[in-house]
Amino acid sequence: MATLLRSKLSNVATSVSNKSQAKMSGMFARMGFQAATDEEAVGFAHCDDLDMEHRQGLQMDILKSDGGEEGAESPLEGDIHYQRDGTGPLPPSASKEAGVCSELSGQGKPKITAWEAGWNVTNAIQGMFVLGLPYAILHGGYLGLFLIIFAAVVCCYTGKILIACLYEENEDGEIVRVRDSYVDIANACCAPRFPTLGGRIVNVAQIIELVMTCILYVVVSGNLMYNSFPNLPVSQKSWSIIATAVLLPCAFLKNLKAVSKFSLLCTLAHFVINILVIAYCLSRARDWAWDKVKFYIDVKKFPISIGIIVFSYTSQIFLPSLEGNMQNPKEFHCMMNWTHIAACILKGLFALVAYLTWADETKEVITDNLPSTIRAVVNIFLVAKALLSYPLPFFAAVEVLERSLFQDGNRAFFPNCYGGDGRLKSWGLTLRCALVVFTLLMAIYVPHFALLMGLTGSLTGAGLCFLLPSLFHLKLLWRKLLWHHVFFDVAIFVIGGICSVSGFIHSLEGLIEAFRTNAED
């Protein structure tokens, strides 16, 4: 009897400890010290993966002595086992991430307000990649400005219809939430013939976007450092190698606790940098070259600009989790409206003002046009932000790859990369290091920020923001849609498909040409 009592008390203590940790994680999340406050917002996408795993049979079980054999010892604090189809331990990092995501899942836990949700969306679509928008105006002129507005309207609409796909009407005529993530929506559209095909497509698109984001961070770091110190005998490739050497410890990450607390500081620093750039441009308002803004486009390079603009608005991948965590989901539409209106205004003004200041001399990364006296300071802050932002998409990409290829139970393609004690095996660590080196190689051989950004936006950005949401909306809810909704969905799918294919082809051609040039050098 005494043993049973001690066991129950130990279980209660462990449960209270876990709940208190989850509450602290939620508190920091609401304050902004969370991976979700990063401009790529990969924290919520990562929580989608953990939620999907849990629904597929993953569960955290605390060993209880009253269900086992007589004389069994009561579990110690932290004696938690992770079961995947009944086997396999959870790495310590994954249990901590699962705790954070259980807080975000909102089941009986504090949720975020519409303003906090808007902050996350704003960080996703107002990140440092807006630095490439003036370059899009260089090749698109007034049409580029129109596309910034058009992309904001379309992405706001597709975000809303994507959330609509999470809900269905039950037998009583009530609208209820029956799906939890982008992957769930994709799988529902491909069922019953291919019940997992849609989720795999979405996961592949997500991995490509996350890895390309990592590559862009290395490229922009090398570019900024090279242009900040042009007199030093260090090439852009060498700066990229130095940046990667700093990022190599990311392969040893077990969780994002060590870096996520800097995300809010990085975001605020980026807003300050944007204000400084705009202030400098306004100081030269008398010299603005209005006559340089074109009414025509560069046919060869403008499709690349389309990808740049689309990539700067990507946020759909984490919207289902964000909406599910809101205190009042009915405020989601209003939140999407004001965040995208604000993004449209700020991006349009930033791109136009920067282009009017430097006109035809506008560079791929606009801060490279600043005078040398302030360029170095601004660029160093941007490099620090890029390096601190790199672990977020890298960690999310690693988690998706490990779950899909190494930890998917009997469906895994390779053996589990974690040992019986939950530690990462040496060859698993080697694969993580290889991924860091892969981002370096891509940054060295294709050191073109605009081309890589355009390619990513045309491939995964257009697919996740334009094509798939409109297609899923038609597939799941076509019987209940009004004619104008059907028209909008079809128009977005067709226009998005044309822009995606055109931008992808031109970006790929540019990358191939750049790759050949660098190989010859």
From TrEMBL:
Q: Which Pfam families match?
A: Aa_trans
The protein's UniProt keywords, in alphabetical order, are: Cell projection, Cytoplasmic vesicle, Membrane, Neurotransmitter transport, Synapse, Transmembrane, Transmembrane helix, Transport
Identify the stretch(es) annotated as Disordered.
65-96
Q: What is the purpose of this protein?
A: Antiporter that exchanges vesicular protons for cytosolic 4-aminobutanoate or to a lesser extend glycine, thus allowing their secretion from nerve terminals. The transport is equally dependent on the chemical and electrical components of the proton gradient. May also transport beta-alanine. Acidification of GABAergic synaptic vesicles is a prerequisite for 4-aminobutanoate uptake.
Q: How does it sit in the membrane?
A: Multi-pass membrane protein
Q: Indicate the segments forming the Amino acid transporter transmembrane domain, all copies.
A: 111-507
Reaction it catalyzes:
glycine(out) + n H(+)(in) = glycine(in) + n H(+)(out); 4-aminobutanoate(out) + n H(+)(in) = 4-aminobutanoate(in) + n H(+)(out); beta-alanine(out) + n H(+)(in) = beta-alanine(in) + n H(+)(out)
Name of the molecule in the record:
Vesicular inhibitory amino acid transporter
Which GO cellular component terms, listed alphabetically, does the Swiss-Prot or TrEMBL entry include?
cytoplasmic vesicle membrane; inhibitory synapse; presynapse; vacuolar membrane
In terms of superkingdom, the source organism counts as Eukaryota
Q: Could you tell me the gene encoding this protein?
A: Slc32a1_1
GTP-binding recorded as keyword? no
InterPro entries registered for this protein in UniProt: AA_transpt_TM
Regions crossing the membrane: 143-167, 207-226, 262-282, 302-322, 334-356, 376-401, 429-446, 452-474, 486-505
